[in-house]
Amino acid sequence: EDQVTQSPEALRLQEGESSSLNCSYTVSGLRGLFWYRQDPGKGPEFLFTLYSAGEEKEKERLKATLTKKESFLHITAPKPEDSATYLCAAPNQAGTALIFGKGTTLSVSS
Amino acid sequence: IAGITQAPTSQILAAGRRMTLRCTQDMRHNAMYWYRQDLGLGLRLIHYSNTAGTTGKGEVPDGYSVSRANTDDFPLTLASAVPSQTSVYFCASKVGTSNTEAFFGQGTRLTVV
Q1: Angle B48-A92-B2 (CA atoms, 0-180°, nearest 5)?
Q2: Interface of chain B against chain A, CB under 8 Å?
Q3: What is the largest CA-CA distance in chain B?
Q4: What string of H, E and C letters represents the secondary structure of chain A?
Q5: Cβ(A27)–Cβ(A93) below 8 Å
Q6: What pLDDT score was predicted for residue B89?
């Protein structure tokens, strides 16, 4: 069964305290791993796509990495404005849609 | 500004009533999707359309129907709303191949009472 699992469910950090979010997947023949950011009351906003193991992508304080079984979203020296829910997703085996993990809610306090 | 527009933004609906959630995109994307998002359950696919004229069932299709008469519009209809359909509904679209990102609308918050 295609499945995407994220951990932890919630993460509280102090400003400047780096950490990582995990996304593991069981989709066969992975055709991309997607990271999104979602702010309260808004739709998910696309961040990154990773296509192959070893690939890395960066945007400001965020860096996404991919292995054969999981992806990490590393947050370096976070700021309060990085507070949001981070979602990862992968195409289902049929290729008909993205399946999403339940998300990690990040809270960064100053 | 190019993107996806959903309407209404929010709605309170009496149980048993019929309701259509509207979704329009101006990016000429082939594929469109409807998801519902519930606390603790995440985003779950209701219906999808790979191209105009075709639709398919997702993970939670019961009680919902869709149509795709043209590229831009993908309305979601609740024929007879029930309280368990209280949720936030998101429409999304993408170019069409399985390895491209999807873009989301701002959501419709629906409460069925």
Answers
A1: 50
A2: 4, 33, 35, 40-43, 45, 48, 50, 56, 58, 90, 92, 98-107
A3: 40
A4: CCCEEEECCEEEEECCCCEEEEEEECCCCCCCEEEEEECCCCCCEEEEEECCCCCEEEECCEEEEECCCEEEEEECCCCHHHCEEEEEEEECCCCCCEEECCCEEEEEEC
A5: yes
A6: 98
**Amino acid at residue number B69:** A
Alpha-carbon span A14 to A19, nearest angstrom: 10
Residue A101 with chain B: CB contacts under 8 Å: 42
Which DSSP string do the residues of B11-75 spell out, in sequence order?
A: EEE-TT--EEEEEEESS--SEEEEEEEETTTEEEEEEEESSTT--EE-SS-TTEEE--SSSSB--
pLDDT band at A31 (very low <50, low <70, confident <90, very high): confident
Say if the Cβ atoms of A46 and B102 lie within 8 Å.
yes
Q: What is the DSSP letter of B1?
A: -
Main-chain dihedrals φ then ψ at residue A19, nearest 5 degrees: -160, 180
Closest CA to A56 of A40, A76, A42, A84: A76
Q: Give pLDDT tens digits for B7-38.
A: 999 999 999 999 999 999 999 999 999 999 99
In contact, B60 and B36? CB cutoff 8 Å: yes
Would you say B90 and B34 are in contact if contact means Cβ atoms under 8 Å apart?
yes
Count how many residues are written for chain B. 113
Task: Summarize pLDDT for B53-81 with one digit per residue, the tens.
Answer: 999 999 999 999 999 999 999 999 999 99
Q: Do A32 and B33 touch (CB under 8 A)?
A: no
